[in-house]
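Changelog-linked ticket: arginine example.
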Amino acid sequence: MKLWGGRFTKPTNQLVDEYTASISFDQIMWRQDIVGSLAHVAMLGKCSILPMDEVKQIIAGLKKVKEKIENGQVQFSTAHEDVHMNIEKLLIDEIGPVGGKLHTGRSRNDQVALDMHLYLREKLMEIIQLTVYLQKALLEQAQLHLDTVMPGYTHLQRAQPVLLGYHLMAYVSMLQRDIERMQESWKRVNILPLGAGALAGTTFPIDREFVADLLQFDGIYVNSMDAVSDRDFIVEFLANASLLMAHLSRLCEELVIWSSQEFSFIELDDAFCTGSSIMPQKKNPDVAELVRGKTGRVYGNLIGLLTVLKGLPLAYNKDLQEDKEGMFDTVTTLHGALGLLTPMIQTMQVKRERMRQAVTNDFSNATDLADYLVRKDIPFRQAHEIVGRAVLYCIEHKKYLLDLTLEEFRSFSDKIEEDVYTALAVETVVNARSAQGGTACSQVAKQIETGKTWTEET
Ligand code: ARG
């Protein structure tokens, strides 16, 4: 017998049961469902909507159900559709018809919204924490590489030399904004929808503030129709998760490139790579690739939910049940990615010499030759032209700028003097970028200090 069976003349078609049920995936929220019910029934007692002895029976029953679920003694069933009705059914089996009083002044519509808020609130905290751990791993590597020079790229062409510490700190900043976005969303996640009823509020003299306090919510949905209709707090999470994954996938792409034989900038630890079933020599950066790949499903989950919401009339529609799998999947995907990237970054080996070699055998000090000429009062545009010609000359003569003799240099501009060699040396070039936010060692050290205040605050 269905909990809502009274109005029906025959059982539901079994395919309908299977099609409409969400228990296979929403059982993940069973704890939140019980916590919410405990607060609700406590409020029913406090407001004298239910007598205290019944409230006590229901509380004892819910605790018993919780115990049984924890001990693996219960089997959820699609016949009871979702986690809410499964638990209510278990409660009634446990304590008899009085269990049926739990749902007084409540609808599954506000109940499910409550569960989602409770669940996401918990997961937000975990994801923020995991992101901080990744930031810390990047910070530690950055600190070790305050003197490791490498090419900085634009268009994936060598552009200007940077410190590896600088490059890694770029990610720490990105992750900081991801964390801040998650934190800012808190005030929209941590509000109470319970008490909204099905859509119009309830006829019972409930006390929503009391429930909000018990469950430590900072506020209550002002309008009950809104409370049961919207899932914008989940969309926001999925959007923030998408940006976080975008950042992680860029980091992963670099790990893949850097660990290729062509670059050979880093070596990922064996424990975080996999082999090939046919090519014995292979060591593949599968984890980094998979994080990059899984970014697609996180974006998909965002677009999926936005599309579910589009054009949906108020208030609750069963379409909203589609809010769950994408959210759960995103949480799992973030857990996996962040949990693995942290030790991968911690254990990666950096091939300093190889990076240095890359940065000395190229023209990434060309801007510095132009800047040198500017300091000798040549307009930048003209200096750019001069250096362009010098680079072309070098390419034709198979040389780099630092291989040129002073005579050769002076054939491009007589403003060039002996001091050009120090001006173009890689350490000079890097440390000359000492304006705020630049790659000079002194600036990167400051960025690391700022990064530490971020990770210590959260
Ligand atoms: N399983 C449903 C969901 O996830 C719970 C709410 C059902 N409400 C309803 N009126 N059918 O959305």
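Closing comment: Example verified and attached. Residues 22, 26, 82, 108-109, 112, 316, 318, 320-321 surround arginine (CB under 6 Å). Strands lie at 149-154, 157-163, 191-192, 219-220, 266-267, 349-350.
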